[in-house]
Amino acid sequence: MWHFLMLAIAYACVLASPAEAAPKKKGPPPDAFKACDLQVRADLREGGTLLIPRDIHLDEGRLMLSVTFSPEKSIRSVPKVLYGNSDEEKRRQLRSYLEQMKAAVDAATKESAWFVVASKRTLRPDLRSSEGDASPWYGILLADIGGKCRSVAMFRNVQPDQLPPEAQRDLTE
User: Fold this and answer.
1) How far apart, in whole angstroms, are the C-alpha atoms of residue 8 and residue 14?
2) SS (H, E, C) 53-93
3) Segment holding 154, helix H or strand E
4) Reported pTM
5) pLDDT, tens digit, 9 for 90 and up, residues 36-85
C-alpha cells in the first residue's frame, strides 16, 4: 500500500511541476534576416546596401509595388507579367501574385521585409538592363512569408538619389 501511495505522490509532483523547469535546448540565435538570411547576403556580395521598407504601396491593376524612402521619391517595381495557356492558368497566377504582394506589404509592417540594392554584376546577363543611361544598381524586395524567403518584386535601375543619404554612402562602384 505504501508503494502505491508513494507512487501516486511522485506522479502528482511530476504533473504539478511547471514545464519551464525542464531544461531548454539552446540553438543558434535567430538571424536578423529570418528566412532571407542566405538570399540577402548573396545579393550584397558585390556591394550594395540594405534598407527596411516601411512604406510599400500595392498597385493591383498594374501588379506593381512602390517603395518610398523619402517623401518626394518612390521607386516602382517592374510589373509582373501573367503567363499561361488558358485564362484559368493566368487567373491562378494573378491570385498568387496578389497574395504574395499583399503578404509583402504586411511583412513590411512586421519588419520582415528587406529592400536590397545590389550591383547588377550579380544578375544573369539576360536580366541586366540594356538602357543607355542605366544605373549600375537594381533593387529587390525580399520578404519572409510563412517562414520562406520570397523575392516579391524587382526594381530596375535604382538611382542612389532615390534612397536615404545613409544608404547612398554604401553605393560606391
Assistant:
1) 10
2) CCCEEEECCCCEEEEEEECCEEEECCCCCCCCCCHHHHHHH
3) strand 148-155
4) 0.77
5) 999 999 888 888 999 999 889 999 999 999 998 877 778 999 999 999 89
With contact defined as beta carbons under 8 Å apart, do 122 and 139 qualify? no
- Tell me if residue 119 falls in helix, strand or coil: strand
CA distance 108 to 102: 10
Q: Domain-by-domain residue ranges, the chain?
A: 31-168
Cα 17 to its chain centre, rounded Å, is 41
Cβ burial of 116 (10 Å; 0-12, 13-18, 19+) is buried
How many whole angstroms separate alpha carbon 40 and alpha carbon 31? 11
CB-CB contact of 145 with 107 (8 Å): yes
Q: Which strands make up the sheet holding 73-76, listed edge to edge?
A: 56-59, 64-70, 73-76
Give the C-alpha separation, 90 to 86, whole Å.
6
Rounded to whole angstroms, the maximal C-alpha distance in the chain is 93
